[in-house]
Predict the structure.
Amino acid sequence: MLDLAFAWAVVSVDDTERGHRAAAWAVSVGGLANLALVTAALALRLEGRFPGLADALSSPQALILVTVAILARLGIYPLYFWLPRRVEGSPAARAWLHVVPVVTGLWLPARAYALVNGSWPWPAFCLTLGGVGFLVAAILSWGEARPERILSWVILARLGYGLVLITLGTSPVPVAINLLLGAGLLFVAPSFVATWRRASAGWGRWRWAVEIPAAVGVAMLAGVPGTLGFVGHTALYRALLAQGPVSLLATSLLAESLLVAALLRAWLAVDTGVREDEETAVGVLARWSVMGAVVLLAGAGLLVGLHPPLLARPFSGMAALPSLFTMLRGITLAQAAAITLPLVGGIALHRYRAEVWEQVAGYWDITAAVLRLEWLVRAVSTPWSAGRELLRAAGEIGVGQGYLGWVALVGLLTLLFVWK
């Protein structure tokens, strides 16, 4: 998923020397990670063992290769968030390039959790980290001045949300799928409004239908019953009420309320954000392709939301999910209150945002700078610049003139491949 999204971005990267250098370097690092993993798998197969985590830990050469792949992936991961800003394309395309890394970020800890057989290391630290990340991203989404940036914070908040779920022993797969479908609808909604607004002028009382895609996307991300977001909320609050600390429960309720308020503001900005020049006549193919994307995303989201067991076929870990009606019958009063409070609180925060903002506006700039870790960026900028120059000089020698780096890399891979 990461490689496909990044290849899409590289093709559309801005026409600057810096952009092309970053794209070429990222592709090289991604290829190094893939090559290391393939070589490790081949080495294990040659030793007569089925490649797996235990084999990698017991085989020195495979362990080195897997470590190289992990370091390469961690090094390239931030570029998946940076590069979309330099892509020449529609806002929907750039936004999708943000969604894919976050969904992958939800999936990778889930796979790691399965590999360690549910014994997640440092659970208290992971719960604290996930809860703080969830709350910080929710606060920034509520206070974001530009509605088109709200979704970026909402999406990033799901990383902390997913870490809490995983640490509590719950799969984040429904959350990841719900994020893909719900955010996808909100990304497509402006194009849908722009292409169908003029056509809807003759629909009479049905003109409001152009707002349906954005409304469904907000409902999915807010966790309204009948969506996969509701499945994730039910699992989260059931686990928190049963085993989680009260402080984490309160943090999650506050964060969800802020996210609901931010999503409502993003929803209302969809229609007003469409410019007049975007409402020009479009081709029949473009109009119906947008309609097809909306139908597929909304249909898939509502179908698996109303009947989550449908996920059992493509995702074996989802076999235990009950249907919506079974889930509703099994909800206790405390769980119902925990699920409902964020929706009510989010609506109230959206309704009285002007009054609340008047009280916090004087402190917001400083608070936002601290929460965005801008102080940390400034603190490390000087040593980072020095290190970057050293790496650039090493790269000129290793990758450019002399190709010494590539020679050493090929030699290392050959040695590890034939090493018994």
